[in-house]
Amino acid sequence: LVPVWVLPRYAETMTMLRDPRFRKDPFAFERLPAAAREPLAVSEATAGRASVEMVSMLFLDPPAHTRVRAIFTKAFTPRRLESLRPRIQQITDRLLDAAEKRTADRTIDLVRDLAYPLPVTVIAELLGFPPEDYEKIKHWSDIFAASLSLYATAAQQAQAGEARAQIRDYFDAVTAHLKQRPRDTFLNRLLESEKQAGGLNREEVFA
Q1: With contact defined as beta carbons under 8 Å apart, do 207 and 168 qualify?
Q2: pLDDT tens across 147-160, in order?
Q3: Are the beta carbons of 50 and 161 closer than 8 angstroms?
């Protein structure tokens, strides 16, 4: 079994979140106890691959996390988030109306008809991806999520590697197009940060 500590109380949980002795990076091979490496299928090769792929702030510690988070914070101000409300409401209404029309008894499956498509639609639109690609992006996202589970199989890891290559090709094509024809999208603002001191590098934008 993987050695796991469970922190059920608030005080200990906050200590773990704030104390620099605890790290977010789950892929650092040298910090894992030997007993954890085999159940987690972690090897030096796995750790090396992940260190290249997982440079999102989900897996970063300060000061790298602080730098990346500051860039996102500027884009997601309270005013900016509030300005998204009408568009999100429109998307929600459209999804619910479509779901209602598909059923004779006016019942819907909230997960399938709303909770599944709404987040990817909002995020993909915010970033500036074409609507016809939303389902494809959601598919890639699901594959990545499965590969990050505690007991991801070798097949899931391999599938994630294939998905990463596909989405990288897609990302490079979209960003090349946006650089030629800039639009007022969040992705464009991330690309602009590459030119600034302390901004994101290309791998961080991709993550």
Answers
A1: no
A2: 877 778 888 888 98
A3: no
